[in-house]
Amino acid sequence: MDIFLLKDIAIIIFAATIIAYLFSLLKQPLIPTYLIAGLIIGPTGLSLISNHDIIVTLSELGITFLLFLVGMELDFSRLRDVRHISIAGTTIQVISTFFLVFLLSIALGFSTSISAILGVCFIFSSTMVVVKLIVDKNEIDTLHGRMMLGILLVQDVFAVIAISILGTSVFSAPLIIAAGLKAMGLFVLAWMCNKFVFPLFLRKIEKKGEVMFLFALSVCFLFSAITFSIGFSIALGGFLAGISLAIFPYNLAIMEKISSLKDFFSVLFFATLGMQFSFAGLSGHLVPLVVFILFVITIKPTIIAVIAVLFGYTSRVAVICGSGLGQISEFSLILAVMAEKAGMITGEILSMIIAITMITMALTAYTFKYDIIIGNYFVNTFRPLEKLKFVKKQKLELKKEAVPKNHIVLCGAHVIGQGIIDSLEKMNVPFIVVDYNPEVIKMLINRNISCIYGDITHKEVIDKSNLREASFVISTIPYEKENEYIIRKAKMLNAGTKIITTSNTITCAMHLYRKGADFVIIPKLISANKMGNYLSFLFENGIEKIDDIKREELKYLDRKKEEEKTQRHEKSFLKEIREKYYLV
Structural domain of residue 19, as residue ranges? Predict the structure, then answer.
């Protein structure tokens, strides 16, 4: 093997590692760091890479593995609750964004073909960046989190279609139709392998980790070879291979094994892309660069927000969803590279797209950080759209009383919260639940329980729950900052309100007491105490009693699973609340 190739790979990985670490301290997404690493070590920077063509060839595997994992993660069941905006709404967004960018590009002096490529590139938002930020903020189950995931999933499907069309390098109607028929045939092949062929193999090798890894690689390269042989890109083959292996639970094990390989080749791809960046070429496109960046971070989120409101979602949810998708995607870079290789755009245009990607991805970290502020600031902008007659609002609220008084406000209705709800219903105490999980809110509405979708830190939710006149506030939220805010806000509105919170650690519990909490529950300690009580009971009454305890627990869990689809709550936790805070 060429020792210089190993040296080049070592330089790329080392540079990417150093820059990624520095940017991680600033909580920036990783993709721009790989682009910057390529910029520094490439021809524009220190010019340290000598085997550029071979590195480019290797980096194409990064695209293939990336789409391979996207195919395996493709789960349309995620769209059940947000299917209308995910499918119809995203389709509207894709078409409207394309035509607006196309017209804007024409106005800026670009040719029709380049304008079309720019329009396609600006359609997509970054799945890799947005999903990571949603997970980091623990917003995967929020309504806006689910909406973003649904939109990104459908955008990824459009991206794969665009990649397959661009990979054919033919644009006459008959040839595109022929390519479409070939693609449909490949999708049918992948589906048949998923349903009838590969499950048989995977069942036999599921416990043989290395064999499963080799089998997954074989399928990936087999589909890539098939697509390449009939005129498509190897990336499409990776996506189809992923679909063929999207068989639960085997896909989880495969993704875990392939992920590191994907990460390695993805670093090569994005770093190689950074090497192609040219400041000299960009100097002639500074005005379009600024205009397109402004479009991506303002107009594109506005399009998504307007569509969300028209589909019945509240303005705040719509604004947060739109602002979170205000960037262009890693797929945009893939499409731009393919277009540049096909001679459809110049290196200068590619450099402009790279710059837009880096800047908008970096800004996304801050839009997520300040999403509440952004939502509050722009919420009134979209209010008039909510009043349109044809807008059917999503029902995510149930209030038995217009203005509840002397009630309990329960923040969080999962696990512990569900147990508290059962107890409060038995005591016939007036209460209202606040939760940001739309599934939980729908379940509570079906149970005819007063509830509000949202975050208790939002002014609108505070007003709707009438926090000012609440006698108790119970928070099952396990985060210190949120609980500290609830304590401060509730005491400021009504000093007499009693506040119960939860905490994962003793240190955090003591901090919340100092901030004004009236009682802090530490579920782990209660679980430990209950375990001790179980053991004492068993040793005092005989070990054989464990079967009786097991039977009762299974009955309880089955009942909760059927009725509420939640985990078991701690009875001792509820007992402590009743004994300490019950008012006759």
Answer: 3-385
